[in-house]
Amino acid sequence: MQQLAERLGRLGTETAFAVSSAAAEWAASGHRVYPFHLGDIDLPTPANIVEAMNRAIADGKTGYCPAAGIAPLRDALAENIGRGRGLDFTGANVVVQPGGKPVITKFVQSLMNPGDGVLYPNPGYPIYESQIDYFGGRAMPYRYHETPTGFGIDLDQLRDLAPHARLLVYNDLQNPLGCESTADERAEIARIAVEHDLWVLSDEAYFEMRYSGTSTSIASLPGMAERTVILYTFSKKFAMTGWRLGAAVAPVPVAEQIAKLNTNDESCTTHFVQAAGVEALRDPSGGAPILAELQRRRDAAVAALAAVPGLTCATPEATFYLFPNVTEAVARTGFATVAEFAAAALHHTGVSFCTRHHFGSAHPDETQRYIRLAYSGISVDDIAEGIGRLADWVAAA
């Protein structure tokens, strides 16, 4: 029998989709499910964006277009992303992608040689580790520690690891933790990157998904623009997860290589979807109601979680994720692992969520247990009802 390629054994997946399958199976058997597991958005894409796509299709924008993206979108992204970060970009810095996720792959392909060390967040988005392993890199996870206001990066560990790395993946407004670096933490990460001449992927998928304050890109700090690739996506701000539209913003020599990878991988991002992206940047007003609704959901979820015995949760100012500590709740319900707790919660309450273990292997010295709740695909009423059922179940244990 013919064998598959050896490297496929190193390819991971986005394990939240496995939780989706379990939730769908439970729902198909007639049970109510409260979906907190997947970071999809159940709100409609703004009408002006949909109309722009329809016009583009009617105008015949259904064929091939440049691999790096159409000029109006690249120029609009350069202006928008640069203005929001205090940086000067041109269209030559921008390479349009079919979503944000391909930026991770093409960053690794462009800048990592087999055997190179790559620092990445753990807990963190699982595709970082998957792509590092798949292309033969040396995965170097760095950890977070819980703080009174959320989570912070273990800078001592990062300093120890950095001399042995070539690349650093940094996700500031972070999935799954929902946390954001302090100005001091961000500055220290930039200092480490400059000192050790690291290439940096700044995953800024949630840069504009915040309820107060202002986001800062690490690329705007001294010495960082020339070593940083920014991951940008339309998925979150404009509720365009299924449209698959994003971009890499990079120093021109790197952008040119990413464009070459585009030619090899998908030829180009769908032309009429790019036209819709131009409209989204021209008139982004439709993003405000999406953000306002997500804030309502965050507030409802945080309020409801306060009633769950043995659970503590910070209130993040960005993303649409909560990462509660459930160590005491797991013990109270008598389960040995957080995975068992999650499975039982689904079957007893209908509440479906991911656990810390869906976002990288736990560090050997971890003792606390966490779950991740995404509130982007569930209504305020269902948030209150579902978490209320979870609270009653834990209280009765």
Structural description of this entry:
The chain is of the alpha/beta class. The chain has two domains: 6-44 and 287-396, Aspartate Aminotransferase, domain 1, CATH 3.90.1150; 60-284, Aspartate Aminotransferase, domain 2, CATH 3.40.640. The chain contains 13 helices and 14 strands. Helix 7 links the parallel strand 7 and strand 8 (199-203). Helix 10 runs parallel beside helix 13. The longest helix has 19 residues, at 287-305. 49% of the residues are buried.
DSSP strand content = 5-15%
Structural class: alpha/beta
Shape: globular
- What characterizes the major β-sheet? 7 strands, mixed
Share of residues in helices: 40-55%
Classify the fold: give the CATH topology of the largest domain: Aspartate Aminotransferase, domain 2
What is the highest CATH level, the class of the largest domain? Alpha Beta
Low-confidence stretches: none
Tally of structural domains: 2
Determine Rg (CA atoms, Å). Answer: 21 Å
Q: How many alpha or pi helices? A: 13
| Mean residue pLDDT | 96
Which series of helices and strands comes N to C?
A: HEHHEHEHEEEHEHEEEHHHEHHEEEH
Query: How many strand segments?
Result: 14
